[in-house]
Design goal:
alpha+beta, 2 domains, 6-stranded mixed sheet
C-alpha cells in the first residue's frame, strides 16, 4: 500500500474512532452505559451537548486533514437534532368533544426555600385542579394554603422518611369532590393523621395531613395517589423521583420502575412532579412505554427547561413533568419562575375523557 493510501485509511479509521468517542456521552445507551455515572447525569443535557458538538464539527472544518472527522461529527449533531425536533415542533391537540379540561401544576418548593406567597400567587392566577408540591412538608403546604385568598383546596402530605426531600404534598381543588388520598407502602411505619381543626382521625380523607415519617414506600421519596370524588376512573399521582446521584443510580431506576408499573397498569393516569429524569434518559422512556407520554415534549415544549432555575434557559433541562396515559389529550405546557427554588414551576392543561 502506497504512503498516500495508507495515510488516507489511517485518517478514516481515526475519524471513525473520534466519532465513537464523541457519541459516547451523547448516546450512552448505544454502549450499554446509560446507567453508569457520569453518563446517566450527562445525558440529561443531550440537546445542549449536540449544539456543542455541531460547533466543534464546524470549527474542525478549518483544518484540511480533520475534515473527514468534522463531517462525521456534524452528521452526528444534525441527526441528533432531527431526532429531537418533534419536541419543539409538535403542537397541542384540540380537546375531543365531550372531554373535560383539567389544569395540573407542579412546583418543587426546595424544602420550603420557595416563597409560599409566590407559589400561592400562581395558584390564585391559574386555579389548577391539582398542585403537586415535591419537597413540601406539612407546614410548608399549610403556609401556601394560607395565601390562597379563599380558594378551597384539600391538602395532603406524604413524608416517606425523615429527609426533607422525601416530603411530597398535594393540593386538590374542592371542585373535584370527596377525593381520597393514598400511597403504596412496603411498611406503613408510624402514621399520625388528623383533620385540621378536629381531633378526628382522617388519614386519606379530604383535608387530612400525614405527619410522618412513613417508612418504606414503594418510591424512595414517597408519592400520593388521589382517586374518587369527581375523578371517575382517573387517578392523579403526585410524585418525586429519586435523583440519579453517583452511587445511587440503582435507586433512581427503582423509582422509575414504579412509574413504569403505573403506566402499564392500563388505568387512566396522570403523574405530576419532579421526575429527576428527562426524555433523553432511556429508563424514563422505558417507564413511559407505549401507554404514557410527557405533556411538554408532546406539545412542542420539550426544551422548556425547569432545572436548574438559576441558569440561563439554554442550560436547563426538563425534569419537572406531567405524564399522562394515552387516553388523555395533552394541551398547553408552560413554566414559571419560582422565587427561592432551584426549579421552575410547571402548569399544564389536559383533556380527560368523561367517565
Amino acid at each position: 500500500m502506497d504512503t498516500d493510501a495508507a495515510w488516507n485509511l489511517r485518517r478514516v479509521l481515526l475519524s471513525v474512532l473520534f466519532l465513537v468517542i464523541v457519541a459516547l456521552p451523547l448516546y450512552p445507551e448505544l454502549y450499554g452505559l446509560d446507567e453508569v455515572t457520569p453518563f446517566t447525569q450527562l445525558v440529561a443535557f443531550r440537546p445542549q451537548f449536540l449544539v456543542l458538538v455541531l460547533v466543534l464539527g464546524l470549527a474542525m472544518l478549518l483544518r484540511w486533514n480533520w475534515r473527514i472527522a468534522a463531517g462525521l461529527v456534524i452528521l452526528l449533531a444534525l441527526t441528533g437534532g432531527a431526532l429531537l425536533a418533534p419536541r419543539n415542533l409538535s403542537g397541542p391537540t384540540p380537546p375531543p368533544a365531550g372531554s373535560r379540561a383539567l389544569t395540573v401544576m407542579v412546583a418543587n418548593v426546595l424544602g420550603g426555600g420557595a416563597d409560599a406567597g409566590e407559589v400561592a400567587k400562581l395558584i390564585n392566577a391559574y386555579r389548577p385542579d391539582i398542585v403537586s408540591l415535591p419537597e413540601a412538608r406539612v407546614d410548608v403546604r399549610q403556609e401556601i394554603e394560607d395565601h390562597l385568598n379563599g380558594l378551597n383546596y384539600y391538602g395532603y402530605t406524604q413524608q416517606a422518611n425523615a429527609e426533607v426531600e422525601s416530603a411530597t404534598s398535594v393540593l386538590v381543588a374542592e371542585s373535584l369532590g370527596n377525593v381520597q388520598f393514598d400511597s403504596e407502602k412496603l411498611d406503613t411505619g408510624k402514621v399520625s393523621s388528623e383533620q385540621p381543626g378536629t381531633s378526628k382521625p382522617g388519614a386519606g380523607e379530604p383535608g387530612a395531613q400525614t405527619i410522618g415519617p412513613v417508612q418504606q414506600t414503594t418510591t424512595q421519596f414517597g408519592h400520593i395517589i388521589i382517586t374518587g370524588g369527581n375523578l371517575g376512573k382517573l387517578r392523579l399521582i403526585a410524585y418525586h423521583g429519586y435523583p440519579p446521584l453517583p452511587g445511587d443510580v440503582t435507586i433512581w431506576k427503582q423509582d422509575l420502575q414504579v412509574v413504569k408499573d403505573w403506566c402499564s397498569a392500563g388505568s387512566m393516569t396522570v403523574v405530576a412532579g419532579d421526575f429527576n429524569a428527562t426524555t433523553d434518559h432511556a429508563d424514563f422512556r422505558s417507564a413511559l412505554g407505549k401507554n404514557c407520554k410527557s405533556v411538554g415534549p408532546s406539545v412542542g415544549e420539550g426544551f422548556q427547561g425547569t432545572w436548574p432555575a438559576n441558569r440561563p434557559a439554554l442550560f436547563r433541562t426538563q425534569i419537572d413533568q406531567v405524564v399522562i396515559s394515552d387516553d388523555i389529550v395533552p394541551g398547553k405546557f408552560k413554566t414559571y419562575d419560582l422565587e427561592g427554588s432551584d426549579h421552575r414551576a410547571v402548569i399544564t392543561t389536559i383533556a380527560v375523557p368523561k367517565s
